[in-house]
Specification:
heterodimer, A: 193 residues, mainly alpha, 8 helices, 2% strand, B: 192 residues, alpha+beta, 5-stranded antiparallel sheet, 5 strands, 23% strand
Chain lengths: 193, 192
């Protein structure tokens, strides 16, 4: 597989949210606005990229039986770094995302990529995979957040384009499921065509 | 290079090294971000104070004093705004645990004559799109520029004068309660 394909697969063919349906807890929990979705996506992108790189570097030093705990420690370290840095330099965003930042540790895409990809492939491939998957995740969360924000609060990236209240349900958790369902349906239609 | 074998010594050594490196790195980042995090917290507090009291020339955070609540267990933080030696307003950090998702923290600005100048929501976990509307002027303005002794700070459902936010009565109630607490505590001993 060429590196370009390796990179691009995260967007459409193997998009973590729309196709693999991984990492849905943050995807549904924080995407009430496009900005929240994007911030969450970028935080996950950083963790995914760093943990993929580190895991592919240390994979030969880790005995088979303790690989999962070792990977989790690596991932948790980067998540805590993101948490601390965000609290210090982007407090407003940090407050919005709150509990969901520490929860990146248990996001299945991060451990999933470490276990299924980075622990078997070269450093370069793992880095590109992390970048592609992370951007795909960011793209999916931003799109989901934008759809929910447009329908639910009649605004986009915080700019109100219409007076009024919008369709409330899209801001609430059930709206996240509905919006995600329709987005997956649209994605599938395009993939088949 | 071949994978390391899963012998007991190998596993213990690997996990030990991995956790050691991770904790060292984290300790370093923690030290690095400690100051910005505190600065951000302070800036947020100052921002809330600035928004609710008139312009001042002292340092409200340094002049902060606490006034105990009637239950004797907890206390509210009072941030006086002083200009030219005179108190021109007080920002009261009030809170309640009766929000839809627990804690709601408000910064209530009270002028020397007892009227509320402005209210800022400092911390909350209310439902986005419903409870968060308590920050909107439409709801908040009901509390502002009024004499709290003339108005009952309760939602209409509870026999008060405040119009609750549609579909967010609990959040409205919590907001009113925290404001009332600030006003009561201010009367009791805050206006020194």
């Amino acid at each position: 597989m060429s590196q370009w394909k390796n990179f691009a697969k995260g967007f459409v063919k193997e998009n973590p949210v729309f196709v693999l349906l991984l990492g849905l807890c943050p995807a549904l929990g924080v995407t009430s606005t496009a900005i929240n979705g994007m911030a969450m996506g970028l935080a996950t992108l950083f963790v995914l990229l760093m943990s993929n790189m580190v895991v592919s570097l240390i994979k030969n030093f880790i005995p088979e039986k303790v690989r999962i705990p070792s990977f989790i420690v690596v991932i948790a370290t980067f998540v805590t770094v993101v948490d601390l840095v965000m609290a210090g330099y982007a407090p407003a965003v940090h407050e919005q995302l709150g509990l969901f930042i520490p929860l990146i540790v248990v996001n299945c895409i991060v451990l999933g990529r470490a276990e299924a990809f980075a622990s078997r492939k070269s450093f370069m491939s793992s880095m590109i995979d992390g970048l592609g998957m992370g951007l795909g995740f960011t793209f999916a969360l931003t799109l989901l957040g934008a759809v929910r924000e447009i329908l639910g609060s009649l605004s986009i990236f915080g700019f109100k384009f219409m007076e009024g209240d919008g369709i409330l349900v899209f801001i609430l958790p059930p709206g996240a499921f509905i919006a995600l369902g329709y987005l997956i349906a649209i994605m599938n239609k395009f993939k088949k065509a | 290079m071949a994978k390391k074998e899963s012998t007991f010594i190998n596993m213990v050594a690997t996990l030990f090294i991995v956790t050691l490196v991770a904790s060292t790195a984290l300790a370093y980042v923690y030290e690095l971000t400690k100051e910005p995090i505190e600065a951000a917290k302070l800036a947020k507090k100052l921002q809330a104070i600035d928004a609710v009291v008139p312009e001042y020339d002292n340092q409200p955070v340094a002049d902060m004093y606490k006034v105990g609540l009637s239950d004797g267990l907890d206390s509210l933080e009072f941030y006086p705004a002083i200009k030219g030696g005179e108190v021109i307003g007080t920002a009261v950090r009030s809170f309640t645990n009766t929000g839809y998702n627990g804690l709601v923290v408000l910064m209530v600005g009270i002028l020397p004559d007892g009227t509320i100048s402005d209210i800022q929501v400092v911390e909350h976990k209310e439902t986005p799109g419903l409870g968060t509307k308590m920050e909107s002027p439409k709801f908040k303005d009901q509390f502002m520029d009024i004499d709290p002794s003339q108005v009952v700070l309760k939602v209409k459902k509870d026999g008060g004068d405040i119009d609750a936010i549609t579909a967010a009565t609990i959040s409205s109630r919590a907001f009113s309660e925290a404001t009332q607490l600030a006003v009561d505590t201010y009367k009791k001993g805050g206006n020194k």
